[in-house]
Design a protein that fits this description.
The structure holds two protein chains of two kinds. Chain A has helices at 3-7, 50-57, 89-96, 114-124, 130-143, 159-171, 189-205, 217-223, 241-246, 251-263, 266-269, and strands at residues 12-21, 24-34, 39-43, 65-70, 73-74, 77-80, 83-86, 99-102, 177-181, 209-213, 226-231, 234-239. Chain A is built from eleven helices and twelve strands. Chain A is an alpha/beta fold. The two termini of chain A are 35 Å apart. The radius of gyration of chain A is 19 Å and the shape is globular. Chain B contains eight helices and no strands. Chain B has helices spanning 7-39, 44-59, 62-72, 82-108, 111-119, 124-154, 166-176, 181-211. The chains are: A alpha/beta, B mainly alpha. Chains A and B meet through helix 3, strand 8, helix 4 and helix 6 of A and helix 5 and helix 6 of B.
Chain lengths: 270, 215
């Protein structure tokens, strides 16, 4: 079922991406392609570099070496006389329009009500007329089940509601790639379901490529076209959800999954 | 003899005190933001330059700064009227403290806010203007309130460069009748308090208004 997707030009292409902080290697020579509309789940122990993978693509962190392409264009670099130089803010601004991200800790704007959280960027970044931005925002907030909270401030919402607002806020920008960075890790267990349900629905509709960094294995299995297992800054194994969860090849993935099943989730992963 | 015969000259002095406070506060406010952002600049030269300003004005006496502007600058050929010297010295001095308030408030906005703004593709200016500053400004208010009251009380120093402010008028009244020293200075204290307390209330009101609905 992935055939068409893999022959299409990838929307995202990591090429020997490395990231180090001082002596610490977070990512080592990562190669990874994501096809348009492909849903890729990234699993792995904490500190395995999976979050950094997303942060590099969102331009929140700069790769130490290697390149990333989005839509066939270099993200972090520009070619000047055949040499790669670091791109300026203008180039990053242009490229970021393709990418959206939802964070573990929501990062809603606490000084804006819900509606403004979701209309701020469409109005001031995309330049939409206010009415159109509001219409888009309301439609999206209704979709995530928060159509009745437009005037509320983030501090009045539960964690699950905040995260759904954050999802709506990212979606109204209509990115071609969405990054979900452990979006349920900061939530009370009883609120995880509502957020995952929203993401599943978006994934079902989606033209959008998605990178889902998660500790929720059932969710990864349900949503992803492909699952990537990272450990120690490298991609150790990748494959379809069936392959990864039912027929893991590498001892490290086998150990990871059995630890996970034994502890049924989070407490083991912390 | 009642207290009332003291009022006219003290009121005149209080008016000048208020005038100098307002003008100096405007200078201080501008200096706070310029220097506060200067210290956060990506350019090392800008950071160094603002650091020099802040440390010089924080590290030396306000009274001497005042004397320097009023008595020493003329020797270099720059003659400032006393009001200008007072406003500049008070404004720059308190601006140096204010710049630390601006800097630390901007840094106190969680990193995640900037990251969310980047993820929404806001420009650096939009991030500052729409996301960081509105949150930082609320944090600055209590400290700015303190500085403003400090500034108001600091204006008493301008009486030493010939300006007839509230303190100056008190001193003059006392030279007429030293036996009334007690009531004169008591009254001067009361007037300072009457000027300062509304500032406290005003800042509190402003803070409440800016955080309305958020908490």
């Amino acid at each position: 079922m992935n055939n068409t997707r893999q022959t299409a030009d990838p929307i995202v292409r990591y090429r020997s991406i490395s990231k180090t902080f001082g002596d610490l290697t977070i990512l080592h020579e990562i190669d990874l392609d994501i096809a348009p509309a492909e849903k890729v789940a990234v699993i792995g122990p904490s500190g395995s570099g999976k979050t950094t993978l997303a942060r590099l693509l969102m331009t929140l962190e700069e790769p130490t070496s290697g390149t990333i392409e989005v839509n066939g264009e270099l993200l972090w670099h520009k070619r000047v006389n055949g040499r790669l130089v670091r791109a300026d803010e203008r180039h990053l601004h242009k490229m970021r329009g393709n990418i959206g991200m939802v964070f573990q800790h929501f990062n809603l704007f606490p000084h804006m009500n819900i509606l403004r959280n979701v209309t701020e960027a469409p109005i001031h970044v995309l330049g939409l007329p206010r009415e159109e931005a509001v219409e888009r925002a309301v439609t999206m907030l209704e979709k995530v089940g928060l159509g009745d909270k437009l005037e509320a401030y983030p501090s009045h919402l539960s964690g699950g509601q905040k995260q759904r607002v954050a999802i709506a806020r990212a979606l109204v920008m209509r990115p071609s790639v969405m990054l979900f960075d452990e979006v349920t890790s900061a939530l009370d267990p009883e609120l995880v379901g509502e957020v995952l349900a929203v993401i599943k629905e978006i994934a079902r509709e989606g033209e959008m490529a998605m990178m889902l960094i998660t500790h929720e294995m059932d969710f990864a299995r349900d949503v992803a076209d492909r699952v990537i297992f990272t450990d120690g800054g490298t991609i150790v194994e990748e494959g379809s959800p069936e392959q990864i969860f039912h027929d893991p090849q590498s001892p490290r993935l086998q150990a990871f999954l059995s630890r996970f099943r034994a502890g049924s989730g989070k407490e083991v992963m912390r | 003899m009642s207290l009332f015969d003291l009022f006219p000259s003290l009121a005149k002095g209080a008016a000048l005190t208020v005038e100098v406070t307002v003008l100096s506060a405007l200078v201080a406010f501008a200096a706070s933001f310029l220097a506060g952002f200067g210290r956060l600049s990506r350019r090392k030269s800008v950071r160094a330059l603002t650091a020099v300003y802040v440390e010089v004005f924080r590290g030396t006496s306000l009274l001497v700064q005042l004397f320097w502007l009023y008595y020493a600058l003329p020797l270099l050929g720059v003659e400032l009227p006393p009001l200008a010297a007072g406003v500049i010295a008070l404004g720059l001095n308190h601006g140096a403290y204010g710049s630390e308030v601006v800097r630390s408030a901007v840094l106190a906005v969680p990193r995640g806010q900037t990251e969310a703004a980047i993820a929404l593709n806001m420009t650096p200016w939009q991030r500052m203007r729409r996301v960081i500053l509105p949150q930082a400004f609320v944090m600055m208010i209590p400290s700015f309130g303190n500085l403003l009251i400090e500034l108001l009380k600091g204006t008493s120093l301008i009486s030493l460069i010939t300006l007839a402010d509230l303190t100056f008028q008190g001193m003059v009244l006392r030279t007429f009748d030293a036996s009334r020293t007690f009531e004169i200075f008591a009254l001067v204290l009361v007037v300072y308090f009457a000027l300062a307390y509304p500032l406290t209330l005003g800042m509190r009101g402003l803070e409440r208004r800016l955080t309305a609905g958020r908490v």
